TrEMBL record:
Keywords: 4Fe-4S, Electron transport, Iron, Iron-sulfur, Metal-binding, Repeat, Transport. The keyword Transit peptide does not apply. GO terms for molecular function: 4 iron, 4 sulfur cluster binding; metal ion binding. PANTHER family: LACTATE UTILIZATION PROTEIN B. Pfam families: Fer4_8, LUD_dom. The keyword Lipoprotein does not apply. This is 4Fe-4S ferredoxin-type domain-containing protein. Residues 332-362 form the 4Fe-4S ferredoxin-type domain. It comes from Actinomyces glycerinitolerans. Residues 512-529 have a biased composition (Low complexity). One of its GO terms (biological process) is lactate metabolic process. InterPro entries: 4Fe4S_Fe-S-bd (IPR017896), 4Fe4S_Fe_S_CS (IPR017900), FTHF_cligase-like_sf (IPR024185), Helical_ferredxn (IPR009051), LUD_dom (IPR003741), LutB/LldF (IPR004452), NagB/RpiA_transferase-like (IPR037171). Residues 1-21, 503-529 are annotated as: Disordered.
Length: 529
C-alpha cells in the first residue's frame, strides 16, 4: 500500500504556507474497491469534516439544478430513458455475441484487442505495452476503469509515471488523495483548497496564484500542455464502444481527452466489457442522456470517437483491453445485473441525501453513492459478514430518488433490497450477532396475530415518555436505534382499533358501480380542465 501524507503539507520555517486548509484524509488503498473500512466507520469520519460537507452540498445542489433545467426542456426525456433501458437490456442479453463482433471490427480497423480477466491482468497488459515503447512517462484521460484497477499505483511501482490530465483528477493526484465522485472526482474540494494544492504540489504554479477559477484552470492548462506535447503514449477509458463498427468513444468537457487521443503515437484504452451498445445509431440516445444527467449540459463540449487506426491521423497504434474483473459474476444475478447498465453519469449521487452528507470517501470504494452501493458488492462478491463491502447496500434511506433520476432506469432501490437479502442469507451461516438474536426473539410475536395485538397495546406506553411526538433516546440495547434516529411514539389509535370502530362487521360494504362512476366523474372533469 502506498504511504500517503495525512497531515498538513510542510513548509520552510520562513516560508508562508500556501495550504488553503487542504489536507489528505485517506490513503491510496491497494484494492480500490475495498479500502478496508465499513460504511458506518467511513461515515463517522467524514461527517466530522464540516468543510467537506459544505463543499459537497454546494456542488451537488448546483449540478442537480442544472440537470433539472436541461431535463425539463426535453419533451421526450422519458422516451429516451426507455430507449436507453432497452439498449442496455439487449447488451446484457447478447453480451458474448456483441463482444466477439466488437473485437472483430476493432481488429479489422487496425486495432489490437487484449482480454483481461481481472484488474491485475489488465494492469500488467498496460505496463507491458508502455515498456515496449521505451517510455516511463504517459498521459491519462479520466477513467473509472483505471481507477478500479488502481493503474496509477501499479505503474508507479513499475517505474512509470502516469499524469492525470482531467482537471479534477489532477487535483486528486497532486494531493495524494482519492476521488469522491465518479464524474467530479474533486467535488469535496473548494477553490481555496485547490489553490493550496497547486502551490504546494504542482511545482510550476505561479507564485501569485489566486483562487480565481480562471487563474486556476490557466495554471493547470500551462502545466499540462508540456505533458501533452512530449507524451508518446496515452491511456484512456471509454464511455461506450459500438459493436457494429468497432468504434470507441470519449465524452468530456475540458479538451484534455482530445489532446490525449490525437497527439501521442500509441493509445491504450481500458474498457469494462459491459460498456457496449449494439449499433452506431444507439449512440444518439446516450449523447442526449449522458451530458444532461452528468453535468447539466445539453451536449459534451468534446465528444471523440475513433475506429481503429487511421494512417497519418492520430495515434498509429491502438490497443483495446476488454476487462471482466467480476462483471460476468454480476451478469449471473437476474436482479443485480441491472447495475451493469450504468453509464457513469453520477446523477444518483448528486440527488442522494446519504451521499450528500457523508461524501464519497465514506463508501470505501472508487464507486461511491447509490450506484457504488449496488455495483461494488457485486464486482467483489463481498457480501460476507466479515467483508467491509457488505455494509454498502445498507448505506441508503431507500427514498427512491436515485432510481427516479437514473437515465437508464436502473431500479437501484430494488437492487439494494435484493443485496441486503443476499447479505442476510450469507450471514445466517455465521455466528449470530445481537440483531439476529433480537429478530429471532421477536419472530414468535410477529407471526402470531393475538400475540402481536397484545404487544401493540404495550407500545402505547411510549406516549408517556415521548416528547413532541417522538422519543430521542432510550437505554441499551434500544440506544443502537435511537442514537442515530428518533423513534415515533405510538398513535392514539392503532389500525386494528380504527378498523373495528369504522367497520363493526369487519366487512367493507359493497359500493354500486354507478356510485363509483358518479364519484369519479368530478375528479375526471377537474383533471380535464
Amino acid at each position: 500500500m502506498t504511504q500517503t501524507f495525512l497531515g498538513m503539507p510542510a513548509s520552510a520555517p520562513d516560508e508562508q504556507p500556501h495550504t488553503g486548509g487542504w489536507r489528505t484524509n485517506v490513503a491510496v488503498p491497494q484494492d480500490t474497491l475495498r479500502w478496508g473500512h465499513t460504511f458506518p466507520e467511513g461515515a463517522h469520519k467524514t461527517l466530522a469534516n464540516t468543510q467537506m460537507r459544505r463543499n459537497l452540498g454546494h456542488a451537488t445542489r448546483t449540478i442537480r439544478n442544472k440537470r433539472q433545467m436541461r431535463v425539463d426542456e426535453m419533451p421526450d426525456w422519458e422516451d429516451l430513458r426507455n430507449a436507453a433501458e432497452a439498449v442496455k437490456f439487449e447488451v446484457a442479453s447478447r453480451l458474448p455475441e456483441l463482444l466477439e463482433q466488437f473485437e472483430a471490427n476493432v481488429t479489422a480497423n487496425g486495432g489490437i484487442v487484449h482480454w483481461a480477466r481481472d484488474a491485475a491482468e489488465a494492469n500488467q497488459i498496460v505496463a507491458d505495452i508502455i515498456k515496449s515503447k521505451g517510455v516511463d512517462d504517459v498521459v491519462k484521460i479520466k477513467s473509472m476503469a483505471t481507477q478500479e484497477t488502481n493503474l496509477n499505483e501499479y505503474l508507479a511501482d513499475e517505474g512509470i509515471t502516469a499524469h492525470e490530465t482531467d482537471l479534477a483528477e489532477m487535483i486528486v493526484q497532486l494531493a495524494d488523495d482519492m476521488p469522491s465522485h465518479i464524474v467530479v472526482p474533486a467535488i469535496h474540494r473548494n477553490r481555496s483548497e485547490v489553490r493550496g494544492i497547486f502551490l504546494d504540489r504542482m511545482g510550476d504554479a505561479p507564485e501569485n496564484l489566486s483562487d480565481n477559477p480562471q487563474e486556476l484552470t490557466a495554471a493547470a492548462r500551462a502545466h499540462l500542455r508540456r505533458k501533452f506535447l512530449h507524451a508518446k503514449v496515452a491511456v484512456s477509458g471509454t464511455n461506450m464502444g459500438v459493436a457494429e463498427t468497432g468504434t470507441v468513444s470519449i465524452f468530456e468537457s475540458e479538451g484534455n481527452g482530445r489532446m490525449c487521443l490525437t497527439l501521442p503515437d500509441t493509445l491504450i484504452t481500458l474498457m469494462g466489457i459491459e460498456k457496449l451498445v449494439p449499433r452506431f445509431q444507439d449512440v444518439e440516445i446516450f449523447t442526449q442522456l449522458l451530458p444532461r444527467s452528468a453535468t447539466g449540459e445539453r451536449m459534451n463540449p468534446y465528444t471523440s470517437m475513433w475506429t481503429g487506426v487511421t494512417p497519418g491521423d492520430g495515434p498509429q497504434e491502438f490497443h483495446l483491453i476488454l476487462m471482466d474483473n467480476g462483471r460476468t459474476k454480476v451478469l449471473t444475478d437476474p436482479i443485480g445485473r441491472q447495475a451493469l447498465a450504468c453509464i457513469r453519469c453520477g446523477s444518483c449521487m448528486n440527488i442522494c441525501p446519504v451521499y450528500q452528507h457523508t461524501g464519497g470517501h465514506a463508501y470505501g470504494s472508487v464507486y461511491p453513492g447509490p450506484i457504488g452501493s449496488i455495483l461494488t458488492p457485486q464486482l467483489t462478491q463481498g457480501l460476507d459478514d466479515d467483508d467491509p463491502v457488505h455494509t454498502l447496500p445498507f448505506a441508503s434511506s431507500l427514498c427512491g430518488a436515485c432510481g427516479e433520476v437514473c437515465p437508464v432506469k436502473i431500479d437501484i432501490p430494488t437492487i439494494l433490497i435484493h443485496l441486503r437479502a443476499r447479505s442476510v442469507d450469507v450471514k445466517r451461516r455465521l455466528v449470530p450477532d445481537m440483531w439476529d438474536v433480537a429478530m429471532n426473539a421477536t419472530t414468535p410475536i410477529m407471526s402470531n396475530g393475538k400475540a402481536w395485538l397484545a404487544a401493540t397495546e404495550g407500545v402505547k406506553a411510549t406516549r408517556l415518555i415521548g416528547h413532541d411526538g417522538r422519543i430521542g433516546a432510550l437505554p441499551f440495547p434500544a440506544s443502537l436505534w435511537t442514537r442515530s434516529r428518533d423513534l415515533p411514539i405510538a398513535p392514539k389509535e392503532s389500525l386494528r382499533h380504527w378498523w373495528k370502530r369504522t367497520h363493526p362487521d369487519g366487512v367493507t360494504p359493497a359500493r354500486p358501480a354507478t356510485d363509483a362512476v358518479d364519484a369519479a366523474q368530478p375528479a375526471a372533469t377537474e383533471e380535464n380542465r
